[in-house]
Design brief:
The chain has four helices and seven strands. It is α+β, with helices and mostly antiparallel strands. A five-stranded antiparallel beta sheet has the order 4-3-7-6-5. A two-stranded antiparallel ribbon has the order 1-2. The longest helix is centred in the last third of the chain and has 17 residues. Bound molecules: flavin mononucleotide. Flavin mononucleotide binds next to strand 3, helix 3, strand 5 and strand 7.
């Protein structure tokens, strides 16, 4: 699936991108136009604390991210943020979780080597004694049709964010 702009180098060639996070921090990431297919029959699971810091990652999460578990635990979940994801998608996720409701959506995630993978994610608040102690996200294989729709939708959303 090729959803990058025509000025990108050849497929698989890394290019640098300056990612701007919602808190104003910036990070240089390597991006490659190379999709890694969702692994058949696997669920990709992670948990975070209330601030979105990764506290648990199952083996499929580790394998797909390209990081070691040690590199993931304790990091903000935006370690997987792909520049093609509109900020509004994550605002919707946090607003929804903040109301105590589950969130579902399509996410394009960035691997450590710059390649990417699409997931269909469900995130829920973990509540103990009426208090949110963190969040869990379970990802499954995405529908190809919906991914194609999201490629267009997210491009329009990025354009609205001034990030074509
Ligand atoms: C349980 C949970 C799972 C998340 N999973 C992802 C994920 O797989 N990929 C991702 O980019 N952001 C994920 N996020 C959202 C990130 O916390 C963050 O909002 C997003 O990456 C945008 O970060 P930024 O605005 O700091 O760039 C998740 C958040 C929670 C609470």
């Amino acid at each position: 699936m090729n959803d990058h702009d025509a000025s990108a180098p050849g497929a698989g060639e890394p290019r640098e991108y300056l990612l701007r996070h919602h808190d104003g921090s910036q990070r240089r990431v390597q991006v490659r136009d190379l999709e890694v297919p969702y692994p058949e029959g696997r669920l990709i699971v992670s948990r975070t604390d209330p601030a979105g810091i990764i506290t648990h990652a199952n083996q499929s999460f580790v394998d797909m991210s390209g990081y070691t578990r040690e590199e993931l635990i304790g990091q903000p979940h935006h370690i997987l943020r792909h520049p093609d994801m509109p900020a509004a998608a994550f605002k919707d996720l946090w607003d929804t979780l903040g109301r105590g409701e589950p969130w579902q959506g399509y996410v394009k995630n960035l691997r450590k080597d710059g390649s990417y993978y699409w997931v269909f994610a469900t995130a829920i608040p973990n509540v103990r004694e009426g208090r949110v102690i963190g969040y869990t996200s379970v990802r499954r294989k995405p529908s190809l049709t919906r991914v194609r729709e999201c490629i267009d939708l997210y491009a329009r959303m990025r354009a609205e964010e001034g990030r074509p």
